[in-house]
Write a structure and sequence with these properties.
The protein is α/β, with parallel strands linked by helices and 209 residues long. The protein has one domain: Rossmann fold. It is built from five helices and eight strands; from the N terminus they run E-H-E-E-H-E-H-E-H-E-E-H-E. It has an eight-stranded mixed beta sheet with strand order 3-2-1-4-5-6-8-7, with helices on both faces. Strand 4, helix 3 and strand 5 form a beta-alpha-beta unit. Helix 1 packs across helix 5 and helix 2 crosses helix 3. It is globular. The model has no long low-confidence stretch (mean pLDDT 96). One of its GO terms (molecular function) is riboflavin reductase (NADPH) activity. This is Epimerase. It comes from Hyphomicrobium nitrativorans NL23.
Length: 209
């Protein structure tokens, strides 16, 4: 496949680039920090803002799918996720590209309260609640689009793979707590979803118990 990855120099994005190339795919990597990426025969780097629809329209055409794996490093209010999603959907519609994968996370929609006690009681209220307010808007925009979308909601990120069972839920049980996932595991799940065509118009919540 030919993939356009937005947020390619971030944690999930960089893992996705490495794994996508290893699986034989070609990637156009959007970033605002080109020094963090290396171009190759399989990776083309494009520098620009993910909220700039004109920029995106120049690069979306000819791709089989777009992957949104943007992140922010501040705790204040943000509109990055919703504004980039609007721009991406506009560019995809203009180019006739239909397959979209967006990475949101635990705290979006009905995944809120399912990330383990420390995440639920400390990390979410003190550090991530503002970004998830915008990720809720992002998910709503995606769900109202006519694209072939998948919204992936990872458990809290961890440096090492968890020892608990790996789980994927599109309907979240009331008592479920998924406490960890690595960025490499998320990247692998993205590629599996693209290659198999699974989870169309679904929101899988993924991670370890």
């Amino acid at each position: 496949m030919r993939l356009l990855v937005l947020g390619a120099s971030g944690g999930v994005g960089s893992c996705l680039l490495e794994q996508a190339v290893a699986r034989g795919h070609c990637v156009t990597a959007q970033t605002r920090k080109p020094d963090k990426l290396t171009s190759s025969a399989a990776v083309s780097i494009v520098v620009g803002s993910p909220t700039d629809e004109a920029f995106l329209r120049r690069h979306v055409a000819g791709h089989d799918a777009v992957v949104l794996c943007l992140g922010v490093d501040r705790i204040g209010r943000t509109t990055l996720f919703s504004e980039s999603t609007k721009a991406v959907i506009g560019a995809m519609n203009a180019a006739g590209v239909r397959r979209l994968i967006a990475v949101t996370g635990v705290g979006a929609g009905d995944s809120k309260g399912h990330g383990g006690w420390f995440y639920n009681a400390v990390i979410y209220p003190l550090f991530t609640r503002n970004r998830y307010a915008d990720k809720d808007r992002q998910e709503d925009i995606i769900e109202r689009s006519n694209l072939d979308w998948t919204i992936i909601r990872p458990a809290p990120f961890a440096a090492k793979a968890g020892t608990g069972a790996w789980q994927v839920h599109t309907d979240i049980p009331d008592a479920l707590q998924l406490t960890s996932v690595t960025r490499a595991e998320v990247a692998s799940f993205i590629l599996d979803s693209l290659e198999t065509g699974r989870f169309l118009r679904q929101k899988p919540f993924i991670g370890h118990v």
